[in-house]
Design goal:
Number of helices: 14
Strand content: 15-25%
Helix content: 25-40%
Number of strands: 23
Structural class: alpha+beta
């Protein structure tokens, strides 16, 4: 589904009345100094500027000595931070040595080549969160969005004007090759993870079509031939499309607000798992107390903090239920570890003194039945650097204003759901009167931490924690499957289109109450 893309911006405040004013000569000198810093900074202090202004051009040549320095930093930082490095059979240092040798033999690499090489190494660690940022791909770009619908793809203009051809929404091929072939060419640049997640990242990369053309060993072109079809694959039509000079931003999908729907159905829309989601929960859940059903819509929600999960889930705990242990986490400790961030993401250790009696008993019962489905960082050769198990416990406190919601609930989900959103999905799965509806989740955990390489300013993200769910599954090891499959239709991606998945969820809840 479509997601929003955010970029860092630099804002300049102009002097206004009442502020201090400098003499003209001084102001001129200051202005010249600021201008010089702005122009020279990308070359003099790229490690500071690039994370703020965005990525550097992919074709920028990086000297071998700079790559040597950044590969040293990359090796030491990943080894110190990654909780996944010892979970898969790979020779990490040997993989880095291949990049080092290639750089030395050629006198350097382009930033794009270096970024792609590091991404391949990170993918081999099995960490779905591991990504390389800071490379601006060269244009031109596709002027349309590509969204998966079951095993096909829908193409819509970036400006929201509709399908490329009105009665043929499905994209079959680009320059004669099926979309699947293009995604296959990008396969080694994709992070580890389930197929749904890798497909979405591949579609994002495909937007920079000139890079895909280079990988396919085809010359750059200002236009491409697009094959489109209707529901019947035999209705194909080829059209010429001009590529775009800039990469278009993408819309958040779906665009709904929380409300009480027809039939007295509560609708809680959570596009992200952060402070705004907490505000939405606190604002709307009291209004839903007398509704006959509830829809929690987390489609397109790529995660965030776990505050929204902690705020919402107590509504699904009955008065006589014990506290709910959502999962157990192990963390790769390193010098940059911040205890406050660690507790927010993972909870507390079993010996924490502030657990109440009920919470302590719930953790004890959880530990007695908990068996990880695969190896954990605590079993690896780096076990000495792994901290104690931590437990995320959700409970309703004494005199808690959050009531137990006793009616049926539908949680709408899709392949964009990741991190803390997947923790919510996994916790709701199999719970009484709660049904997951939509398409399989993305299958990606949260907890990625970032560091910046000093010479190239590439930003590297790796995960220092691994979370295991109640049934022993590793969060992010596989997609979470819905109880009820419900797919969007091509028209779902057009402005103001009818949301067929939302309507299916509403009808499901109405049927549970025997309403019309």
């Amino acid at each position: 589904m479509r997601r929003s893309r955010s970029r860092h911006c630099v804002h300049t405040r102009l002097a206004t009345a009442g502020q201090t004013h400098y003499p003209t000569t001084t102001a001129f000198v200051l202005a010249a100094f600021v201008l010089a810093v702005f122009l020279l900074a990308p070359f003099v202090i790229p490690g500071f500027v690039a994370p703020v202004l965005g990525g550097m051009p992919a074709d920028r040549l990086v000297p071998a000595q700079d790559i040597e320095s950044d590969l040293d930093a990359f090796t030491s930082q990943v080894a110190a931070r990654s909780a996944y490095l010892q979970l898969v059979p790979m020779d990490f240092e040997a993989a880095v040595a291949v990049v080092r040798q290639r750089s030395q033999s050629r006198g350097g690499l382009t930033l794009g080549e270096l970024g792609a090489a590091l991404q391949r190494i990170l993918a081999a660690t099995g960490d779905p969160t591991a990504r390389v940022f800071g490379v601006d791909p060269p244009g031109p770009f596709l002027p349309f969005a590509i969204d998966p619908v079951q095993d096909r793809y829908v193409a819509t203009w970036h400006d929201g004007a509709g399908f490329l051809v009105a009665d043929k929404p499905y994209l079959s091929a680009l320059d004669g090759d099926p979309v699947g072939i293009w995604l296959g060419r990008l396969d080694d640049r994709l992070p580890a993870g389930p197929a749904t997640y890798r497909r979405q990242i591949g579609l994002d990369l495909l937007q920079a079509f000139s890079e895909a053309q280079q990988i396919a060993e085809r010359g750059p072109d200002s236009t491409i031939t697009v094959r489109l079809s209707g529901a019947d694959l035999g209705t194909g039509q080829d059209i010429k499309v001009a590529l775009a000079g800039t990469r278009a931003g993408q819309l958040i999908w779906p665009q709904h607000d929380s409300a009480v729907l027809t039939g007295n159905i509560g609708y809680l829309r959570l596009p992200r798992m952060g402070s705004r989601a907490v505000d939405q929960i606190r604002r709307w859940m009291p209004r839903f107390e007398r509704t006959v059903g509830l829809i929690v819509d987390v489609r397109g929600n790529t995660g965030g903090t776990r505050d929204a999960f902690r705020e919402l889930f107590p509504y699904f705990i009955r008065f006589d239920d014990p506290p709910f242990v959502a999962g157990a986490t192990v963390y790769r400790e390193h010098p940059g570890t911040r205890l406050a961030d660690l507790v927010d993401l993972t909870g507390q250790t079993a010996d924490w003194l502030d657990w109440n009696v009920a919470e302590g008993a719930a953790i004890k019962a959880f530990r007695a039945r908990f068996t990880p489905a695969d190896s954990t960082p605590a079993d690896s050769t780096a076990a000495a650097a792994i901290g104690p198990w931590r437990y995320l416990v959700v409970t309703r406190q004494e005199k808690d204003p959050r009531y137990p919601y006793l009616e049926h609930v539908v949680v709408l989900m899709d392949s964009a759901c990741r991190g803390s959103t997947e923790l919510l999905l996994a916790s709701c799965q199999g719970r009484f009167k709660i049904a997951l509806m939509g398409t399989p989740s993305g299958g990606v955990p949260d907890g990625a931490e970032a560091f910046v390489l000093g010479r190239t300013s590439l930003k590297i993200e790796v995960s220092s924690l691994v979370t295991y769910l109640v049934d022993g599954r590793r969060l992010g090891a596989a997609s979470i499957e819905p109880d009820i499959l419900s797919f969007p239709v091509p028209e779902s991606f057009l402005p103001a289109a009818k949301d067929v998945q939302l309507e299916s969820a509403r009808k499901y809840l109405v049927a549970r109450k025997g309403l019309r």
